Amino acid sequence: MQANRVEIDLLQFKKNITLVKASVNGSLLCLPVKSNAYGHGLVKMAKAAEESAAVDYLAVADLSEAIELRQSGISLPILVLGALFEEQVPLLISNHVEFTIASPYKARMVLSHCEKMKMSCRVHLEVDTGMRRTGMRPSTAIDLFNELKGQRWLKIVGVYSHLANGGPSTDPIAQKQIEDFAVCMKQLSSRNRPLLFHLANSYGIQHLPDAMLQMVRPGLVCYGYPSEGQSSLSAVQPCFSLISRVCYFKVVEKGQGISYGHAHITSDKTRIVTLPLGYGDGYRRSLSNQSHVLIRSKRYPIVGNICMNQMMVDVGNDSVYVGDEAVLIGKQADQQISVAELARLCGTIPYEILCQFGSNLPRFYL
Ligand SMILES: *Cc1c(COP(=O)(O)O)cnc(C)c1O
After folding, report:
1. In 3D, which of 207, 93, 41, 213 has the Cα closest to residue 49?
2. Is residue 202 in contact with ligand 1, taking CB distance under 6 Å?
3. Distance between CA atoms of 198 and 162, rounded to whole angstroms?
4. What pLDDT, in 10s, does the model give residues 248-303?
5. Which end of the chain, N or C, is surrounded by fewer C-beta atoms within 10 Å?
6. Is the CB of 220 inside a 6 Å radius of any atom of ligand 1?
7. Closest CA to 239 of 2, 89, 18
8. DSSP H helix total and E strand total for the chain
């Protein structure tokens, strides 16, 4: 019997990826499952994706995630997005994962490992069109492609870039990226070998139809978070809930301070309940005195500073009992607390809220 749990609605997740797949005009769907599948659980989400048949590729940030997927029996193609270190190369090759080459130096290094191991590998060239994170210049990619074509060990199967967009105000930046990538594509695709070109993330597939190429890499929207405002995918729904249970109850007189630093003073005699969940479990301390929880289908404020593994909630005069469920993210009857709401309150983005819930919170898959 766990006090806290994350619930993942796999049926909803499968609906989401099916909706996304149907919206991308036949592009292959590469599902990013980095950072523990945006907090949802790496292996379970990958398995659900594999079962659904809507997903053609998985993308991870680094080698360890790829190995975990292979060891748990996932057979979808896996693309490691992050820059690689030399000592990882033999493992990348022997685990049959595809990976990113972002410089000619790394390409030659990988090639020499392939020759030594007498094993071939499949790689994607990353082109920087404006993110300035990893990736080579388009002209470098074209030269490298020519250098490597025809040799047997290192197979270039894809060429990709990443959008630096942060919403509508950065659409002109994305437009320039799309154009620069198109120039690069044109030079590479005339060489009569089919290549997977891919560029669009979640924002791209919802707002930039020109960014949808042979493959797309939407993460956030697949987990149920379409971009706000106009989105062709407004039907996708979150599949992540965070639920705790009331573990303690007390009556507090008017004018009493609550928690560390007495950052909240009661304005009346009231009932305060405690939940056994705090910032040590990934619930941000900066939500202290800001966010709400749902108990018995009603919204109540979190009061006082959030502790490492506990927090207090003011339930007024209502009857709330030890053992009652408290929803911190998700739905209860007609009430809802969204990831976007929490992100706004602590000045961050939904991605960061989802990623921060650690593995000490058990995940239950519905
Ligand atoms: C994380 C990531 C994505 C997915 O981004 P979303 O905004 O979640 O759709 C796509 N491509 C790369 C290279 C990434 O790092």
Report:
1. 41
2. yes
3. 8
4. 999 999 999 999 999 999 999 999 999 999 999 999 999 999 999 999 999 999 99
5. N
6. yes
7. 18
8. 11, 20
Q: Is 198 in the pocket of ligand 1 (CB under 6 A)?
A: no
Contacts of 202 (CB under 8 A, 6+ apart): 218, 219, 220, 221, 222, 225, 226, 227
Alpha-carbon distance of 328 to 59, in angstroms, equals: 29
Helix (H, G, I), strand (E, B) or coil at 256: coil
Amino acid at 64: S
- pLDDT bin (cut points 50, 70, 90) of residue 360 is confident
pLDDT for 190 equals 62
Among 30, 36, 80, 81, say which to mutate for ligand 1: greatest number of ligand atoms within 8 Å of CB: 81
What is the tens place of the pLDDT at every residue in 147-157?
A: 998 889 999 99
Note whether 315 and 325 are within 8 A (CB).
no
| The token pair that represents 199 in the structure block | 């560029």
User: pLDDT (tens digit, 9 = 90+) per residue, 81-117?
Assistant: 999 999 999 999 999 999 999 999 999 999 999 999 9
For the record, the structure tokens of 157 come out as 């199967």
Residue type, 113: H
Q: How far is the CA of 329 from the centre of ligand 1 (A)?
A: 23
pTM: 0.96
Catalytic residues: 34, 260
* Residue whose CB lies within 8 A of the most ligand 1 atoms, among 60, 129, 201, 351, for a mutation test: 201
Angle between helices 10-23 and 42-52 (to 10 degrees): 50
C-beta of 217 in contact with ligand 1 (< 6 A): yes
Query: Does the CB atom of residue 287 touch ligand 1 within 6 A?
Result: no
pLDDT-based confidence at 355, cuts 50/70/90?
very high
